[in-house]
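Minutes, methods subgroup
Present: GH (chair), OT, SY

1. OT presented the first of two proteins processed in the latest run. Sequence and structure tokens recorded below as shown on screen.
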Amino acid sequence: MGASATPPSTKTDAIPGAPPGWIKSIATLLILWHFFAILVIVTSAGSSQFPAPPPIVRLTPYVRPYLEPLFLINAYRFYAPEPGPTDLLWIRYRYADESVRWKELPRRQDYAFRMQFQRELAAGLLLNLFVEQIPFDSNHPELANSVPNPRGMVVRFSRVGQICFASYVRHLAHMEKYQVNEKGSPLIGLDLYKVAHRILAPDDIKINMKHDDPRLYEIYFVGRHDLQGKREGSERDGFIYRHAEDLFAMIVQEDLVPYLERQGNPHYKSRTALGEHLETFGLPTPFRRAILNDPTLLNPKLSRLEISRQFQAVIERDDNAAEKQRILGGQRQPGAASSGGMIPPRTPAMETPRSPNP
């Protein structure tokens, strides 16, 4: 008989250069810890309708110090159960010749690719992480110049948020497109508005509201800034809450009508020409449709209060009145959950008509 074949070894030879077993064990434990921490933070995100399990909530403080430096605690429940509002910035560029231009950031039409749009959209969301809300107290010196929202809360940036926002304002001030206006006048400052745009709720759709309806926007005036990002007044002042119709009337009187007069009043010529000038001017999206549907809003003889009331009538013109009445009977006002509704504030300044230029 020939020599029998050598039986195969039952012991696996070590791979040359492989790490020792104790390193593999540590790496395995780290991986398990990483995914365990993510599982805890995901399942601990609840709401009033879908509360998180109490045992998971109690574990959250142990995993948060690990996840926060890695920025792994955000957006796990972004669209559950309902997406929150989208944070936008409206910028009012001011020039040395007293003219202005507006910019809505971001706006989908301004980007050829969705990825670039999403990156700009993330800027507003990140800034919102540094926003704090505190109850309004008229006796508190830091809140003396603040205007609370309809929920009685004052919104303002935290200390870190002030630093981040100042840096972002400097970036906006150095955008080449806005360094000078069409007449060559240099930029001298920026007025900033923080805007929350909420999505349409089922009741909003029932009354024929559109996605750009002004009643879906919650608007705050952040402040007036110079080109270095420094805010006029105290950095600890809260934002000033603005009703959409009041801000619209201000823009029409102080910014848009003078701009169109310099362009030869194109709204008297054609809707297309007016639309092109609104695009160049940068009028925020929720205000454009109202002007295009009713150019008489640009009548320079109207007072701010008249503009505000007419704007409200134009916005509500296509509402389903029967459905709206049914919803209001149930004590739910469409579009008012975040903005407080379209209620024109009565101030003496709004009663003053603007004299047309000769």
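2. SY then presented the second protein from the same run.
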Amino acid sequence: MSLDPSLPVGERIKVLRERRGLSRAVVAGLCGRSESWLKKIEQGTRQAVRLPTLLRLAEILRLDDLAELTGQRLPLAVYGKSAHPALPALQQVMMTYPLGAVSATEVDRLPSVSELQRRLDDAVTLWRTSRHHRTEVGALLPSLLTQTHQVVRVLAGTERRAAAVVLAGTYHMTQKVLAYQPVPELIFLAADRGMAAAQEADDPLAIARSAWYLAHVLRRSGQLDQADRVVTEAAELVKPGRDDASSEYRAMWGSLQLARGLTAALDYDFGTAWRFWDMADDIARSLGEDYWHSWNGFGPVNMQLDGVSIDVTLGRYGDAARRAANIEVASIPSVPDRSWYLVEVARGYLARRDDVAVYHLLSRAYQESPEMVKHGQFGRSVIQQLMERNHLVVRSEVRALAAKIDIAT
């Protein structure tokens, strides 16, 4: 139900908070503020709600448009996200629908399924190892998507199903590049097409991986029940106890339990979030201390990173700081994961109002991967909130960092 356009911002926040079933104390805590602060905002006795705070409230309340808070058309994509240069080429490929038959000349020039798989594996490796992962992987995907589609169209039987598995994986990588870009329709399209390709392949692991990626999109759009449902159903395809329950199957099952925990955290369901995290962690530990899945990073190390993220999401910043103290950044195998983790820890310290620590963590995150800070989920909003606080000790450094990722100072 839409709100009356004349409704003040404070009253809008109250209505939207209550619709989400969140207490004033919970929302204020997730903003790193006091309950009395939020009460004054909602009652209209405190008027100034600046942009970074509105962005954080929008994240907590699962809104896609600031107009729902302000009554004015201010899309979040304009303020919370920065378009990547790889976006136009990917957008063009994904919105092109070649309906004619593939000519004989084109068929002769098409790569084999094994060659397409090698190119996809190279993209996965590049994503893990490059500081500029979106740029470098994004440059590979348009041709890989086009050719894999063509190969799927001209093959039949077992070969077609194998090509469809590659196509699903290529859409997963496309979704990674598009994630947190101002094109939510393309992100959903990539996730949906990945699932369609996996189902065409009739491959349990491909379907489970696609469910993992689709759940990210559903969570981000606030469709928490649907996100939980898709991973629950997919987990049945790879559950432990199967005759073919290899480490790949077990890792995928564990990943899907983690997905359920992440969904519960976004719903502020503490007990359920940690119950599923524990189930996933047991699987991760059973796979070995050094296990790390190349597709989504599942393993003992990344389970601890996700534990920090769950603590931050639930507003348990002290727990997040204590958990983070036991994680060595250099032990994280993936470059963007290291940067993402540092941003997550920075979010926790931001809520504790330790702005010097936040700046230090963001600087390290930027050194690991500038693109994760600029184009990831929270890097820009954290920097915007630091700028708002204007801590004199790090003010000039924060502004310099903001300029590097194209935030106006």
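Chair's summary of item 2: The two ends are 37 Å apart (CA to CA).
Next meeting: continue with the remaining queue.
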